[in-house]
Amino acid sequence: MAFQATVLKYDPYRKFKFLVKWDNLYVAGVSKISALTKSVEPVDWRTGGDHNSTAKVPGVTKYEPITLERGLSADARFMDWMKLVNTYQAAGGTVIESVHKFRKNLIIEVYNLPNEKVMSISVFNAWPSKLTVADFDAKANELAIEVLELQHEGWQIDERPDSPEER
């Protein structure tokens, strides 16, 4: 019997159609988001009666930092968010962290070519750990870019509807 490949009835989503939202407002000009990475560390487990082999069981789940990039502009939301972390640090990292409001939930919305929202990803309790403002070079012919690195406590895909043909 001959091998038959399954034909996709839809196009995979393009990675250039997305929006980022926090505090229920869209963030202007985000042009790049790093990959969202989650990994589970394996733990070796040995039972009492078996000294020669181990089993692997899931351990701690780790989430890699997320970076947001955009062209440097008059929008100060990246800098303002970083200032909230600095205010928390200046206060000595008080126990009442919620007063400083530097942890935010983000939503990343992904769109298909006809501009239909096809996926929504929630990022939980994110806070900026690093802000990089562009290097400046009078001889360069490039845009000034700012990069915000976010630590967070996980993410999940909230919406992922069926392909248009299956709706």
Automatic annotation (TrEMBL):
What InterPro entries does this protein map onto? CHP02241, Phage_T4_Gp19
One Pfam assignment: Phage_T4_gp19
Indicate the transmembrane segments per the record: none
- State the Gene Ontology terms under molecular function: structural molecule activity
Identify the NCBIfam families for this entry.
conserved hypothetical phage tail region protein (TIGR02241)
What name does the UniProt record give this protein? Phage tail protein
Q: Which organism is it from?
A: Sorangium cellulosum (Polyangium cellulosum)
